[in-house]
Each structure stands twice: as structure tokens, then as C-alpha cells.
Amino acid sequence: MRKIQFFDTTLRDGEQTPGVNFNTKEKIQIAMQLEKWGIDVIEAGFPIASQGDFEAVKAIAENAKRMTVVGLARCQKKDIDRAYEALKDAVDPQIHTFLATSNVHMEYKLKMTREEVLASIKEHVGYARTLFEKVQFSPEDASRTDRDFLLEAVQTAIDAGATIINVPDTVGYSNPTEYGGIFKYLIEHIKSDQEITFSSHCHDDLGMATANALAAIENGANRVEGAINGIGERAGNTALEEVALALHIRKDFYNCESNIVLNETKRTSDLVSRLSGIPVPRNKAIIGDNAYAHESGIHQDGVLKNPETYEIITPTLVGVSQNSLPLGKLSGRHAFVTKIEELGYQLTDEEIKTAFKRFKDLADKKKQITDQDLIALLTDQSREESERCKLANVQVQYSSGGYQGAIVSIINEAGETKVASTIGSGSIQAIYNSIDELFQQKPELSEYEIQAITGGEDAQAEVRVTLHDPTTKQDFRGIGIDFDVLQASAKAYIQASNQMKEQE
Ligand code: KIV
Ligand code: ZN
């Protein structure tokens, strides 16, 4: 069977989703989970983009044990040098250089002629090759590039030392027949003494990203790029979990295998969803809550007689545990630590101490603490630790008619407590007005979602908000988890407000 390499770009292209901002600690957490999931190559970021990106790529390069760690670089010497600085200590470093080759990009964005583009590819791939053994080149907007020129650009990159060629469908314009055809054409026509790895990189603007990636594999691609839960620029990237499962379930057709540890899929998806603040739609393939639910009587009857009647994927295959043993208020520290290790967390003694206290507080209010509760608690804790200003207290005065009042206090970076009190036409509005006053900001609340983390009356609430800064036109997301909905709403808003403040 042919081995397909999985290249994850959740932390680079995935982070280009509006409003998604992972901090370094979260990036390392996601990277470590991706390594556990079996990812072969991780694109950890775009080192020249910011100091934060540089540090995150460097930290992942230092922490990854097995995966190849990649940094993105434009065809510019300063980008390549910066990527080298960030990646030089990785076990297996790789650079990913790119330059657009479609007419529309060359004429309007780059303002470069074809000759200039070819010269830049030659110069910069050649330079990258002096620093890196593994050089990947992407002709950006490849699917809208003239075939002959695409071949010329790819051949130039190979001649200059690239051994990995990625073919981006940058704007999600292609379809499986056409996209697969590009791979067939390039593989048939390139000349090289070395083995060249062809990689697919699809966007989902027309909903064809997974189908296009699979068409690329059918036509000779040995590497597939994408992001967990399909997050990314505009409609997102190929959802890697979909490709992994398609190759596994339909090995009879694709005759390919991968290193993906399938039963880590759900955990990986949950982590990315939580840290990105982007919920997974219930009906999402592979990892949506309804993916294994059978509603109609005929289906239920069939599944009871033989699951294969309506179930092509078993929930356990992707790590959807249906009746994992919950903890309760009598559970001790040992059971707690064993459970969090089982869930894939590696915490320091200090973090365990804080988490155990939070767990006990929650267990006082909630009878059974499920895996989802624990994951939520740990994610919340890790987010809060990195926040500049933290929520100290919320007090709401509710009256069934007229305005509501809220007093909110926060602890700022200097450790001082700041208090604000305001009114609003609802309790949440009153809380949010107080937080705005404390942060001295006036964002627009463009999204507010609330859901229960588990079933039952004593479920914890998870609130997700998106704040829009009308001046910079940027979005900031926040998630708050708490037993109380008002407290969860305040936490989510403070998290997003902290991010907005950091951009000032
Ligand atoms: O979609 C795209 O073209 C990209 C490139 C940087 C590879 O993300
Ligand atoms: Zn992309």
C-alpha cells in the first residue's frame, strides 16, 4: 500500500481564520496532540509574520519528537533566514516557500512578469536549499495558473533544489477531475534525478476540499495538507480527519495507508475546537455530535440488528467514547490525575494542584464530572493562566422590569483590582457594559452563543463570543466555561477583550 504523509497546517493556515488567535502555550498543546494523532509534518507558523509566530515555531521545533516541523516563507531572503532561525533546532526541519504563479496574482498582486517570477523562484529556492535539506515550494493559486507556466515554475523549483512540490487550490476553485489532472500532468512531465513528493493543499470555497485532496492522492500525490476541523482562511482548508477516515474506510478503493492514530481523532478535534473557539457543527462528517446518532426508527432497528446496516464508521474507531467512567465529588487526587493523563494532558505539579481544586469546586455543584467537563475545565484553566486581566467577581442586580445592574471586578496585570458598575437592558448587557468600561474599549458584540457542555440540569455552560473592533475591523473570540451562565458569559467576554487590548 502507498503511504500518504499528513501535513497539518492548523497552526498556520488554520490560524488565518478570522478571530482565531492561539497563544504559544496553546500552539504547543495542539502540536503535541497532533504528534500523538500521527501527523507526519506540522506547519507550525509563519516565522517572519510576528515575534509571537517566531517564538511559537521555535518552541514547537524544540518540542516535537518525531514530526517534521515546517515554517512558511515568502520568496524573500529575510523570510527564509527567519524561518531558519526558528527551525534550526528541530529534529527534522523543513521550509515551505511560496510565490504566486497565476496571471491575476502576478499582474495585480505581485506586479511581476513571468520571467521575474521564475527568477525569484530560482534564487530563493536555491537560497533556502543552502540552509535546509528539505525544501517545499508552492506555486500559489496553482489551480488557476496556465498549465505550461505551472510546469515551468515547478521545474524551476525542482532544479533549484526543492524536493517537495505543493499544489495549492488557493481559492477553492478547482474540482476533483481538474485538480487530479494537474497532479497527473505535473508528475508525468517534470524531470528530476531525485524523488519528488507531490502535496495537495485545498480550500473549501465550493465545498470540494476533501474530494479534491482525494483526487490528488488518486493521481499520485503522496502528501496531503489540511487543518483539523477544516478551519482556515474563508471557508477553510481540507479537514484532515475526513481524508484520514476516507483512506481508512475505503482502503479497498484508494489502496493507501497513513500514520494517523484514528482513535485520537475526536480528542484532537475537540482540542482545536475549544482553543480556536470554532464549534464543530453537529452534522459535521466524522466528528460532529450527530455523526453516530440514528434518529429514524428504521435506522435504529437496522443498527440494533447489525450496526453495519447504517454505520460505516464505529464511534470507537475515532475515539468517541460513549460511556467513559465519570468522576465525582468523592474521587481522590489519584483518580483525577489518572483520568487527566488518560485524556492526554501532561500538567506540572502546580497546574495539577490548581486543576484539582477547580475539579473539587465543580464536583460540589455537579454530580458527575464527565470527560467533556474535565477537558473544558483544563482548557479554561490554561486560557485563564495566560490572560492579562482576569475576572474576579460578578454581581448582578435583576429586576423583572426595566434596567438590570451589574458590578464587575477584574484583576489587572499589575495585580490591582478594578471595579466598574453599569446598567443594561439585560443582565448580560449590563455585565458587558461594565467590562467595556474596565477595558476602556467599545467593541461590537457580533456573536454570542451558549450551550450546555453535557446533558442534565447541572450541566456547565459554555459561552462563545466574538467581538468586532469597528476601528481595526478585526474579530476577537472568547470562550467562557462555568457552572453559572452569567459567570461564563463574563469570562468569555473578558477573554476576547484581553485579545483586543493586546492588538492596540
Ligand atoms: O492557499 C495557499 O495558497 C497557501 C499557500 C501559502 C501555500 O496557503
Ligand atoms: Zn492555504
From TrEMBL:
PROSITE patterns: AIPM_HOMOCIT_SYNTH_1, AIPM_HOMOCIT_SYNTH_2, PYR_CT
Domain of life where this protein originates: Bacteria
Pathways involved: Amino-acid biosynthesis; L-leucine biosynthesis; L-leucine from 3-methyl-2-oxobutanoate: step 1/4
Cofactor: Mn(2+)
Catalytic activity, as annotated: 3-methyl-2-oxobutanoate + acetyl-CoA + H2O = (2S)-2-isopropylmalate + CoA + H(+)
Example of a GO MF term: 2-isopropylmalate synthase activity
Residue ranges, annotated region (Regulatory domain): 390-504
Enzyme Commission number: 2.3.3.13
Entries under InterPro entries matching the protein: 2-IPM_HCS-like, 2-isopropylmalate_synth_dimer, AIPM/Hcit_synth_CS, Aldolase_TIM, LeuA/HCS_post-cat, LeuA_allosteric_dom_sf, LeuA_bact_synth, PYR_CT
GO biological process, one term: L-leucine biosynthetic process
Residues given in the record as Mn(2+) binding sites: D13, H201, H203, N237
Enzyme class of the recorded protein, top EC level: transferase
Residue stretches making up the Pyruvate carboxyltransferase domain: 4-266
Assembly and binders: Homodimer.
Family: Belongs to the alpha-IPM synthase/homocitrate synthase family. LeuA type 1 subfamily.
Function comment: Catalyzes the condensation of the acetyl group of acetyl-CoA with 3-methyl-2-oxobutanoate (2-ketoisovalerate) to form 3-carboxy-3-hydroxy-4-methylpentanoate (2-isopropylmalate).
Protein name as it appears in the record: 2-isopropylmalate synthase
Organism: Enterococcus pallens ATCC BAA-351
Gene: leuA
